[in-house]
Amino acid sequence: MVGLPYDCLANPLGAVRLTFDKAVSSGLNPSTSNGGDWGSADLFRQFLFDDGGHSQVPILNAESVKHLPPNSLVRFRGMIQDMLGNEVYVGAYKDGSTWRTNKFSDVSQIEMDMSPDMKLWERRLLYCVPVPGLNSWAEPLEALSNQQKTFPSEQREKRPRDDDEAVDHMELGSSQGCQDSPITKKMRDEAHPSSSAMQQDMVNEGTTPFFGSPESERNSFPCLVKIYDTPESDLKMNEIFEFIGVLSFDPELALSKDESDMQSNDLFEDDLVQLPPSKVPRIHCLVHKKLVVHDFVDGSAMAESNPSLIRGTRESLLSHLTAVLGNDGMAAQFLLLHLLSQVHARVDGVPVGKLALNFTNFSKETTSVFGSQLSSTMKELIPFTQKISLTIEYLNNAALAPKKDYQANKLVSGVLQLAEGSHLIIDETELQAGTLNPMGVENARSLKNLTESQQVEYDFQYYKMEMTADVQLLVLSEGKSNILPADVVLPFQPSSTSPPEIVEEAIVQSWRWYLANLRSLSHSITPEMQKVVEEDLVAARQADRSLGSQDFSRLLTMSRLMSLSFGETSLSMEHWQMVKELERLRKERLR
Amino acid sequence: MASDSSPGGNINGGPSSPDDFTSSPIGNTLSSPGEGGRTTRRSQRATSSNTSTPLRSRLNPSSEARTPSSTGSRRRGGRRQGLTPSTPVAPTPASSEAGEGFDNDDAPPMYVWGTNISVQDVNGAILRFLRNFRDAPVDLESGEFEGKYMRSIRRVIEIEGDWLDVDAHHVFDYDPDLYNKMVRYPLEVLAIFDIVLMDIVAKVKPLFDKHVQVRIYNLKTSSCMRNLNPSDIEKMVSLKGMVIRCSSIIPEIREAVFRCLVCGYFTDSLVVDRGRVSEPPACVREECKAKNSMTLVHNRCRFADKQIVRLQETPDEIPDGGTPHTVSLLLHDKLVDSAKPGDRVEVTGIFRAMSVRVGPAHRTVKSLFKTFIDCLHIKKTDKSRMQNEDPMEVEMGSSGNEEDLNVDYQKKVDRLKELSKLPDIYNRLTRSLAPNIWELDDVKKGLLCQLFGGSQLKMASGASFRGDINILLVGDPGTSKSQLLQYIHKLSPRGIYTSGRGSSAVGLTAYVAKDPETGETVLESGALVLSDRGICCIDEFDKMSESARSMLHEVMEQQTVSIAKAGIIASLNARTSVLACANPSGSRYNPRLSVIDNIHLPPTLLSRFDLIYLILDKADEQTDRRLAKHIVALHFEDPESIQQDFLDIQTLTTYVSYARKNIHPRLSDEAAEELIRGYVEMRRRGNFPGSSKKVITATPRQLESLIRLSEALARMHFSEWVEKRDVTEAIRLLEVALQQSATDHATGTIDMDLITTGVSASERMRREQVLSATRNVIMDKLQLGGPAMRTLELLEELKKQSSGAEFHLNDLRNALSTLATEGFVSVHGDSVKRV
């Protein structure tokens, strides 16, 4: 980076201005421009990705925000929780005879009045929150400062690289940055004594943080991201992004809000009123990148997919799952398929590829053993996991579907506002007979809707909007769950209760990589195989008239997942037979 | 788009109240170099003179000229300086050459600041438009020489209105150039518009002292809320959306009066300039001059109403994975409270931006601007659904007003008409209906007919024939009946989906409830009444309670619900099509039993269904294969690669709505003949040669069904006449349905008796045989008054006598009870006695 007249990290705005001046001198006319990119994005892209600057950019989180200087370059990983519309700002103005720009900043250097030498441009506001249910191991590593290297947690991975130079301004004890820390949890409980009882119910082992749910909103770390020059279709609700941009924080602005005249607050809802900059930092996004599940998994352990390696990983994961499930091998098989499932297409609103799993025969006792084993295993394997314990009280009180609050002009998040690829365990064993209030009925309907069509209805008061979701649902219940009509119902038959052995971190990592990467593989079928499958289906239906399209769909989903689990992209006879056998065994168990 | 009324200034001033609105743009338009100093004064006058408050008398004589007219005149050397306020005189010649009137003066032409738009030109254009625009050719005989808007102006004066609605389409038709100027420079052009209007008003009725404003509506293009961008700022835009929040009414100060606390001197009213009025630092009176003694006198200030409304996008404009956008609306004066939360409105207004103020103590300035729409006109596009005569109309976004037929709508209609001309539109529509449900094409066709509906007939005698088509689907579990129902429910504009198990009679029709607060009895509508002019989907029809089902009799034929209880006697309209689905009485359809036995529905109700489809899961390998193929493709093929040659759900809905609203087909002679022929054919079918059985093949109800179906089919083609092909198809549909539902399993022919009485003709014939045989046996064996005979013995005897036929004990019992009612025998338990 020697030779550059600016510092992308410490003074990104300087770099922006420089490119602007360059663009103006080379013919850009701000008075006719609509604020489109003039080359600054390319500059930063080059800096971040080609020159390896990416890892030097400090991560913005609840801790680091206290130390990061305003107007420096930061990184933020979050889910788009709400969209706050567009914002018009003075993009370019004439200071004397030279054009200056305000792009990527909240404040302007000079007093401004409407004049012909001032151009209004537009940017989008996104309200982002940390990914709901993000497990601590999946947090970006650079967030941990030097002391963190020795953080005593077996879940935490070692930082692969040294990047001290990037993080020197955030070395104060960020040990509390980790969301699961007891301190934050205590704070949450203290802050909401009234809701803490319910929280305890929901958060079974007190481990799953409910980010995005109204009760814990205080605790989460939202961020207002201002997006430039990006088509609307690029950024969608509930998607996860890494935003790299200019941190904007001005205490003066924060102060000024208090004394600003009543009237204008009253008239035009200002997001500043609802989202004070002291609590919600702003990022002027220069570069953004969509993240999917496998971006949260460290892939360095498994450099290239090699068939035998994948097979080995599959075997070891399967035996681990079998151990977790008390030696129930069939349940482990189904669980593996379930963990690989993903909605890969929607045909006329019907999601294809989901495999919601319902383990029955769970009593209160077995849940206490296997339920917690299961959920901790999920937390180990999947980057974002959630767990809900269904009780009448919970159904009647919890806000599952997000709801628009027009007073505050924001979308109040619900538990079911989840990022793509989240895993959700629903524990139905504690559900007792009781009366549901209208809220409870609505919640039960939302859950059913999510299981059946992978959609959540967002309540906009005057109408509802269906948002698509992609959540792996695992239901634990005593009998077949009727609230949550899962695709596969399997009676759970454990034969031992010994806890699974502790596994090495490297192996866990390979499992994570396996689950995250294989599920996004493409898949196809050869014409010959297609014929075989069709024949088999027809024969099955001739034999048993009760088989419907749902059963066929399940078989095909399973066969797809089965071959994916071996890392293969085409369905083979062997796997098709395996699936049929598995299904036959399951049917037997159901009897 | 610069003007000297910076957005910053307008923030607090609130831009578009009538006064501010006229004043600031006037200031703009005239502020050519050297005029700066006069701007304030002029605007001051403009404001004060436009109002008819008592304050007016307090003004300086010099500012008492009628401003709208005086703006022009003052430019021309102050000729009108001496005029008294009470005699306003139109400054422009009364002729239509008003525009040129300006040019005759030697003053330089005025331009809207920063543009080449000449004020005089615009002034003339507007005047010409108002005077001469006619929406219909001049009708010499009626003696109406005046333009449309001159008449409107007179009406406004008559009712002492505050505004004149001007259709932007009319402006465009008359003078596209003026329209463009108006849309691009609304502030300036509207100000001139107001001035011209006031001139005309003053001429028509010199003493009319109210201020009349122009309200433009119905712009040629309507923008989408999320497409508003900075380039639209200061332009006129039109938006559709839903009101989600209204602020309380805010009194906004317009003119302030101060009083000196020391000497009690009242100042003249000071006009609020750019939202700010400065308190005089010292008493103005020469004798007093006390410093910091002035205080605001609230009850002598003048206030105007203001309201902020949030408008949100309607769901159909939101792209995938987005949330609705909102925009603030600023309403003034008469527009205040014209929309309530939940209203769907179309707003015409000026898109504006204002800077966000930061306290003056701060060094840094926010670069943010807040945008809002300064409202000119609000039109509700959707009345409350219940009040609307036909909800399908609402879907089309037009409330029957001819002025609503805008270009967009016309385009849509043209597209629909084009669609209707496609040769395969019928099949295409069928494919579009629930495309993810496999097969069942004939059922889908029937459902399509239900969606389109026949036409309702009202006789002069008061009798009415329903146009709604009722359909019953009976079928094996897992044959996607419920999915079909759900789909139709989603598609139909107003419909209720209920499940038979959870519905009670009152829940379906209507019930009387006591209001807990007032104790009054009120009528609450049930599902059928709520789905008036829609489709009521009833799932699990067979599981409905008997009493609930009996309520359906009236609804399905008379299309009303009558209530007589708790002092309320009422007949409510329930012009609804019923789409019901039922499972057979056993879990699967038993082909050896009749439809009635299978579904356990009273025949009276059953006959009210136009089409009864049996969706049976036949063990057909061909179908299975297709299903398997379909599902395999679903899982392994790219969804994009699957060909989509059907209409999307929006188009389908629009298509149906348009057809229902605008197409009212009548029977052509040819079609009528075909109907008669078909009906006669259907009736005759039972009487095939060699059969002595009298099988009633069709009933008049079926004839009515046929008419309805063929009307619906004609609607699908957007055809005004029911043609022969429609009738042929209707007969086919009915036969397909009947063949499945009314096949007599004993004879294989269509047998309407199955549906109307629950007993098939052949069954009835058999009963008669048994009856006569029994009668004969009893005649033979039993003496009048003789000893009794046991039933079993009688059965033996019967079997002996008629060797060929089989007899069951049940048949015999039936026969005996019939004979007993005839008084031929008496039956006591097991013994039969002849009497």
TrEMBL record, chain A:
It holds the Pfam family MCM_bind. GO terms for cellular component: nucleus. Residues 173-182 have a biased composition (Polar residues). Keywords: Nucleus. GO terms for biological process: DNA-templated DNA replication. GO terms for molecular function: chromatin binding. InterPro entries: MCM_complex-bd. Residues 171-199 are annotated as: Disordered. It comes from the Eukaryota. It is found in: Nucleus. This is Mini-chromosome maintenance complex-binding protein. It comes from Spinacia oleracea (Spinach).
UniProtKB/TrEMBL annotation, chain B:
Residues 1-107 are annotated as: Disordered. Residues 20-32 have a biased composition (Polar residues). GO terms for cellular component: MCM complex; nucleus; THO complex. Residues 1-19, 84-98 have a biased composition (Low complexity). GO terms for biological process: DNA strand elongation involved in DNA replication; double-strand break repair via break-induced replication; mitotic DNA replication initiation. It holds the Pfam family MCM. InterPro entries: MCM, MCM_4, MCM_CS, MCM_dom, MCM_lid, MCM_N, MCM_OB, NA-bd_OB-fold. PROSITE patterns: MCM_1 (PS00847), MCM_2 (PS50051). Its EC number is 3.6.4.12. It catalyses: ATP + H2O = ADP + phosphate + H(+). Keywords: ATP-binding, DNA replication, DNA-binding, Helicase, Hydrolase, Nucleotide-binding, Nucleus. It is found in: Nucleus. Residues 425-631 form the MCM C-terminal AAA(+) ATPase domain. GO terms for molecular function: ATP binding; hydrolase activity; single-stranded DNA binding; single-stranded DNA helicase activity. Acts as component of the MCM2-7 complex (MCM complex) which is the replicative helicase essential for 'once per cell cycle' DNA replication initiation and elongation in eukaryotic cells. The active ATPase sites in the MCM2-7 ring are formed through the interaction surfaces of two neighboring subunits such that a critical structure of a conserved arginine finger motif is provided in trans relative to the ATP-binding site of the Walker A box of the adjacent subunit. The six ATPase active sites, however, are likely to contribute differentially to the complex helicase activity. Probable component of the MCM2-7 complex (MCM complex) that may function as a DNA helicase and which is essential to undergo a single round of replication initiation and elongation per cell cycle in eukaryotic cells. Belongs to the MCM family. Component of the minichromosome maintenance (MCM) complex, a heterotetramer composed of MCM2, MCM3, MCM4, MCM5, MCM6 and MCM7. Interacts with ETG1. Component of the MCM2-7 complex. This is DNA replication licensing factor MCM4.
